């Protein structure tokens, strides 16, 4: 449960960061981003797998780049539910979805499943290999 709350907070921080980077994404406050992260997570959990299966031929032909369009659609859907969260334009939603995904992945890679910060330690063995 703690891991879920931490990942939700990470997605919230990602949305806030991207709203500062892109002019077309506007968040009115922390709670708008917090609820946008909740709605975005729910949409990604329920509708994204269905859309990926339905658009599989297009996704295969575009070598997976159509997934960015699906992520942008999820971001635009979240905009329709949250009043303080606004995404203006198609390309803004595509770049916003890409940046949110990258920021969320980067921060989530440091968090374990239990919600603890994970430290990766590498040792140099015999001067040749890193373990």
From TrEMBL:
Top-level division of the source organism's lineage: Bacteria
Family annotation (InterPro entries): Phage_holin_4_2
Transmembrane segments: 6-22, 29-47, 53-75, 87-107
Keywords assigned: Membrane, Transmembrane, Transmembrane helix
Protein name: Phage holin family protein
Organism annotation: Desulfatibacillum aliphaticivorans
